[in-house]
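Q: I have 77 residues here and want to know how they pack in 3D. Can you give me a structure?
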Amino acid sequence: MALKRDRNPMPDFVRGALLEDALMEACEARPDYQKNDHLWWIASPKREAARRKRLAQMIDELKRGDVYMNMAWRAGR
C-alpha cells in the first residue's frame, strides 16, 4: 500500500532508542503508515519533553505488540 503522505525520516534519537531496546525489527514489521505516523508524531512537538514522552509510548507499544497509538491492533488485519 502506497503512502498518501510524504515519508518522514527517522530521527537519530528514535533510531538509537529502537536499537538500544532491540525493537528495530518490531518497528520495521509494522505497516508503512504506522511507521510514518509514529515518526511524524514523535518529531513534531517543539518541546523535547513531549518528543521523549511520545517516543516512550511508541517503545512501549512495540514491546507489547498489540497496540498502535493507544488503540488495539493486530498484525495482518
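Q: Anything worth noting?
A: The longest strand covers residues 67-68. The chain has one domain: 12-71.
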